[in-house]
């Protein structure tokens, strides 16, 4: 496949410029391929194509639009291995995680969104008012590198099923998976201009799409820092804005709760994808009396973590996504030491080619330390003790973020009551886990709006009242 092309108006086209960007494998630092950097002219062409396609696409029935997605879902299934391998090469996630979680989750969530669209009630009456939900227009979809397929799927499936058209800009670190997804979309035969994708830097191409006057919605997943910029950019022209941003999520262990479960769930989010998940449980908040037992359990469960070539079946931890990410994560580790936290285990770069960092656990952490407040986005955990459950809840909420969280406790009803007190969009209780159609979205600086299922779908609709 020629990755130097863009997909615009139903065709693979070359950039009007000549600049290219190398795509690197973080496990080896080898160049895998390169992509083109879109110009202002390319951006305009893509947005124009999406605008032109909107009237006819939005006029189709949901069943007609869903028929394309059913084929696309099958194409994802048929190409599961290829997509997983591509993702592992450019992201560094283990093949196991790419295959069993990343791509599989995209298939399941697409299916859930199709279901949400097919069962959605577009018209209803409020007394004499006919209330109807309609597509909005052209959606700019700007995505990060940590889930290279699903962060795009979560936007385009609801946006297109609702009748909008899209222009996608994937992250610069992981454009190949995105372009391969576009190849599948092309093969399914969506009408021209409905889906468009171009590659290039966020500062230029991302900004260009988001601030284009013909764009009606900005749907962004990424850092809070860039989210703030896009919120501002969207104020011009009063664009609708959907933001899925960072997190610093708590795992709150209650007295008498299963230490094993709390540690296992937490480490799952720190090891899988090298801790580069927005919903990672990066603050393990535990009763002071359990601190020693928690530390022992952490060491026990970390003992068998296998670091290495992400393509090998038994590898648990691969490299972080880039040299820049490695530098950021190591910088936070240094900062944690400087601020007086103690390293229980890890803390170093792994001595091998590529950007590997040891699973790192900090203890003696106070919640106001930088490592407990800022998103590190690497395999780094902070353990924070509390005296009373009230204090545990206060610490859990003492963050500018509010994306995810978890509560583990001996009494499930009590744990649910505490889950209600956490100021975050998701809370997992004990063995509870997210599903393909449970809503996902942030409180506070973690975002605006939702993704997945019916709530994700509704974000791409306008509400009209017809009065007679
Ligand atoms: P990022 O730096 O914010 O970038 C995200 C996307 O925005 C990339 O495509 C990027 O392009 C683009 N971009 C950068 N600057 C831009 C600008 N000024 N205008 C328009 N677009 C711009 O985030 P990242 O480093 O890729 O991903 C990590 C972050 O994403 C973390 O903070 C994580 O928590 C967050 N995240 C949130 C969720 C969620 O659902 N809440 C999910 C996953 C990740 P380039 O790649 O060219 O820089
Ligand atoms: Mg970036």
Explain how this protein is built.
The chain has 468 residues and is of the alpha/beta class. It folds into two domains: 263 residues, 3-Layer(aba) Sandwich (Aldehyde Dehydrogenase, Chain A, domain 1), CATH 3.40.605.10; 192 residues, Aldehyde Dehydrogenase, Chain A, domain 2 (3-Layer(aba) Sandwich), CATH 3.40.309. Helix content is 41%, strand content 20%. It has 15 helices and 20 strands. It has a seven-stranded mixed sheet with strand order 14-15-16-13-12-17-18, sandwiched between helices. Strand 17, helix 14 and strand 18 form a beta-alpha-beta unit. Helix 2 packs antiparallel against helix 4 and helix 3 packs across helix 4. The radius of gyration is 22 Å and the shape is globular. The model has no long low-confidence stretch (mean pLDDT 98). NADP nicotinamide-adenine-dinucleotide phosphate binds next to helix 7 and helix 8.
Number of helices: 15
What number is the mean pLDDT? 98
Low-confidence stretches: none
CATH architecture of the largest domain: 3-Layer(aba) Sandwich
CATH class of the largest domain: Alpha Beta
Count of all domains: 2
DSSP, total strands: 20
Output the keywords:
binds magnesium ion, Aldehyde Dehydrogenase, Chain A, domain 2, binds NADP nicotinamide-adenine-dinucleotide phosphate, 7-stranded mixed sheet, Aldehyde Dehydrogenase, Chain A, domain 1, 468 residues, 20% strand, alpha/beta, single chain, 2 domains
């Amino acid at each position: 496949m020629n990755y130097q092309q863009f997909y615009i108006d139903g065709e693979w086209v070359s950039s009007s410029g000549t600049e290219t960007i190398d795509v690197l494998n973080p496990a080896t630092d080898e160049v895998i391929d390169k992509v083109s950097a879109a110009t202002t002219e390319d951006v305009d062409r893509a947005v124009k194509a999406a605008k032109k396609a909107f009237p006819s696409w939005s006029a189709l029935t949901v069943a007609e639009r869903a028929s394309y997605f059913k084929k696309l879902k099958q194409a994802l299934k048929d190409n599961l291995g290829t997509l997983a391998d591509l993702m592992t090469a450019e992201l560094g996630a283990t093949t196991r995680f790419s295959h069993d979680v990343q791509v599989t989750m995209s298939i399941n969530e697409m299916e859930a969104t199709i279901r949400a669209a097919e069962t959605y009630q577009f018209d209803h009456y409020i007394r004499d008012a006919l209330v109807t939900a309609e597509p909005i227009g052209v959606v700019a979809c700007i995505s990060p590198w940590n889930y290279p397929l699903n962060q795009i799927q979560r936007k385009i499936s609801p946006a297109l099923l609702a009748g909008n058209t899209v222009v996608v800009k994937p992250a610069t670190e992981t454009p190949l998976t995105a372009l391969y997804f576009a190849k599948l979309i092309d093969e399914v035969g969506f009408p021209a201009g409905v889906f468009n994708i171009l590659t290039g830097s966020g500062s230029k191409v991302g900004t260009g799409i988001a601030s284009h006057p013909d764009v009606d919605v900005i749907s962004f997943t990424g850092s809070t820092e860039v989210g703030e910029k896009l919120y501002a950019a969207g104020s011009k022209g009063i664009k609708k804005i959907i933001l899925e941003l960072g997190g610093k999520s708590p795992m709150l262990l209650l007295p008498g709760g299963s230490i094993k479960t709390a540690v296992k769930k937490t480490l799952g989010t720190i090891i899988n994808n090298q801790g580069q998940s927005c919903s990672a449980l990066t603050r393990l908040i535990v009763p002071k009396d359990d601190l020693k037992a928690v530390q022992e359990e952490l060491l026990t469960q970390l003992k068998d973590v296998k670091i290495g070539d992400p393509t090998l079946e038994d590898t648990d931890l691969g490299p972080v996504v880039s040299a820049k990410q490695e530098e950021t994560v190591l910088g936070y580790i240094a900062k944690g030491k400087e601020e007086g936290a103690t390293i229980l285990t890890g803390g170093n770069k792994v001595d091998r080619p590529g950007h590997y960092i040891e699973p790192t656990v900090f203890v003696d952490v106070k919640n106001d330390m930088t490592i407990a407040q800022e998103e590190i986005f690497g395999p780094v955990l902070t353990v924070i003790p509390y005296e009373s459950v009230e204090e545990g809840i206060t610490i859990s909420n003492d963050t500018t973020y509010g994306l995810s969280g978890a509560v583990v406790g001996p009494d499930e009803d009590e744990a649910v009551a505490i889950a209600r007190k956490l100021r975050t969009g998701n809370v997992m209780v004990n063995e509870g886990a997210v599903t393909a159609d449970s809503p996902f979205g942030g409180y506070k600086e973690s975002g605006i709006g939702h993704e997945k299922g019916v709530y994700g779908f509704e974000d791409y609709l306008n509400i009209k009242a017809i009065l007679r």
